[in-house]
Amino acid sequence: MKTLSISLVLFRGGACIEKERIHSSGIDQAYAYCEEIIKEQSKSFYFAFSKLPKDKAEAVYAIYAFCRLADDSIDEAETKEQQAEALAMLTNELNRFEQGREPDHPIWHALRDVFNRYDMPIQSFYDQLKGQAMDYHFEQPSTLEEVETYSYYVAGSVGLMLLPIIATENHQELKEQAIALGVAMQLTNILRDVGEDYREIHRIYLPSDLMKKLNYTEQNLSDGVINESFISIWESLALRAEQLYLDFNRSLDLFDKDSQYPVALSSKVYGGILDAVRQNNYDCFTKRNKTSMLAKMRILREVKMQFDK
């Protein structure tokens, strides 16, 4: 893609001062590039957030694309050295972006436009990279609290990134709720991908204290054993995720009116993954559990009725 003419943005305490939208024929191409990433990589996210007004939806696509870039920098590297190199390179690019010297790439160009239009928290982007570094230096979490700390960095940080877009007036007051949504979604990811994470990248995100307490071993997990112990561990995390979804949804009326419906939809659709695992008898070893299109349509009707009252 050709170089875009991007104006520099001044930062004061991490907040973006300049708010005028970049006018360039190339910015639409940059957003289209980001949209293709979210459309391909997360149908549940796209299903919900594509219902935002166009300018807000585009901003969400850009943020998702950045997070996908960060995630892939770790997951697609073949060696620890390559992981470290990729993460260092991305951190350097974020440093350059903060200084107004972003690389010539559609994701960075789209993000520049987002930072120009919204009061974006640059620290949340660095926190996202810290979360990726935690995967690079991965150790199985000992407790649910450690799982949630990790989940903040890789997903709660995303909630904070989205907050100025979906709560333009109240984003400073809604940080806890935004983090809650991100952590709930990450817990959902963990519970959906138990088998895949162990099989493909040899990671166990289930807390070791619960596994030890309930006598569920790594060999059990490797063998895909679904017994009462596994279900109890799984449900401990699922119930925590569902409580966080509930906490988030209690504050929906404080979000922008044009964002409440898509945001509520995203939490319900993503939370539906937990129900899908239950319906598949907790088989998150051999099945790729997701909220079916039929379930999405049902959730869409229910949420729409909620906002039509």
TrEMBL record:
Pathway(s) per entry: Carotenoid biosynthesis
GO molecular function: geranylgeranyl diphosphate synthase activity; squalene synthase [NAD(P)H] activity
Gene3D superfamilies recorded: Farnesyl Diphosphate Synthase (1.10.600.10)
Alphabetically ordered keywords of this record: Carotenoid biosynthesis, Transferase
One annotated GO biological process: carotenoid biosynthetic process
Pfam families named in the record: SQS_PSY
Entry annotated with the keyword Transferase: yes
PROSITE patterns given in the database record: SQUALEN_PHYTOEN_SYN_2 (PS01045)
Protein name per UniProt: Phytoene synthase
